[in-house]
Amino acid sequence: MELEPFLHTAADLIAVPSTADRPDELHRALELVLDVVGGGFTVERFASHGKPSALLYRPVDGPRPPFRVILNGHLDVVPAPPEQFTARREGDRLYGRGAQDMKISALVMAHVFAELAPLLPYPLALQLVTDEEIGGRNGTLHQLEQGVTGQFVVIGEQSGLEIVTDSKGILQARLTATGRAAHSAYPWHGDNALLTIMEAVRALHTAYPLPTAEAWATTVNLARVDTPNSAFNQVPALAEAWLDIRFPPGEPGFDGRGAAQIAEHLGDICGPGVTVAVEHADAPHHADRARPEVKALQQAARAQGFPGGFLRKHGAADGRFYSQRGIDAVIFGIGGAGLHGPDEYADITTIVPYHRALRDLLAAI
Predict the structure, then answer these.
(1) Cα separation of 35 and 102, whole Å?
(2) Count of structural domains, the chain
(3) 267 with 274: CB under 8 angstroms?
(4) Residues 8, 129: one domain?
(5) Boundary (domain end) residue, out of 238, 265, 282
(6) What is the structure's pLDDT at 249?
(7) 199 and 160 within one domain
(8) What confidence score (pLDDT) does residue 317 get?
(9) What is the mean pLDDT of residues 333-353?
């Protein structure tokens, strides 16, 4: 893979504003990467709730095989101002929305797949999705529900050529409190639902204190507090809070529990007067660091001059959908910084080593 032509294509991909609210642009990003791969492969197309995805593999006689390795990349990005969709190169940095998260890694995966899939003695798949930033349920999860499966998965999320074997679980919940309206001059005649909600949030933060530095611990983010009350001089009779909770493996009350059990656990902490509804709950992601593919990937990273160490990620990624099915998935991607921010960039010096490391991994299996 030649770097300069690759960077021109990368700039074209960054220029596609493939956000969740622009379905045409999601399709355009997907088609651009499919064009990079070229012909000669089976391309299965999927769609769920307007989100397209694709699965590519070497043609076979008969049904789709279980894959020895799946390379997984997402092509959607979070919203950004228009100027961030114009790639900008400064020294060894390529700036732009999606440069680090994760259009560049996905594009490298497409090159590696096109180069090696016809030659490997086992079935290799390239999985391209367009909904990871909004949860991944209509891309990776949808494909798994359609029977796609494999033995080992590499997800190209940013990692600086380190290997992520653990990610926190994620759940989103709504707290609702119902009180009694009254004139604010006579609060003893009412029951303030907002105060009930705030007491519940304080109780949750007492149970799960907010870390002041990085910690492999459960975190409770208060994302929104709302009430339909529209008058200064009225006691609110209804209030709602949105929570985003991240939890490590083995966390009591969350890990290994269903939505109803988690809601009961949160309700016990919040106290009376609060109803808890868990909208989504996904278990933590974990991969066995001792399995041969992980060791081969570590050796491949080290052969490129990188430590190839192990990381744990606080954010969730599509690897959790594989982990829930007993399939080991690791995150392994390029370097860079600033994801989801105004100065997101890819470290250009990591692109070629990343390409070589992926090739070495696939050749070693």
Answers:
(1) 18
(2) 2
(3) yes
(4) yes
(5) 282
(6) 87
(7) no
(8) 85
(9) 97
Who's near 202: CB < 8 A, 6+ residues apart?
none
Q: Which residues contact 10 (CB under 8 A, 6 or more apart)?
A: 87, 94, 99, 103, 104, 107, 346
pLDDT of amino acid 112: 98
Task: Please report, for the domain that includes residue 228, its CATH number.
Answer: 3.30.70.360
Residue 341 CB partners (closer than 8 Å, separation 6+): none
pLDDT tens by residue, 181-201: 999 999 999 999 999 999 999
Half-sphere exposure (Cβ direction) of 210: Cα atoms closer than 13 Å: 9
Stated pTM of the model: 0.91
**What is the DSSP code string of 75-134?**
-------GGGGS-EEETTEEESTTIIIIIHHHHHHHHHHHHHTTT-SS-EEEEEES-GGG
Which residue in 334, 329, 328, 324 sits closest to 356, CA to CA? Answer: 334
In degrees rounded to 5, what are phi and psi of residue 231?
A: -125, 140
Residue 231: other Cβ atoms inside 10 A: 10
Question: What are the phi and psi torsion angles at 116 (to 5°)?
Answer: -105, -25
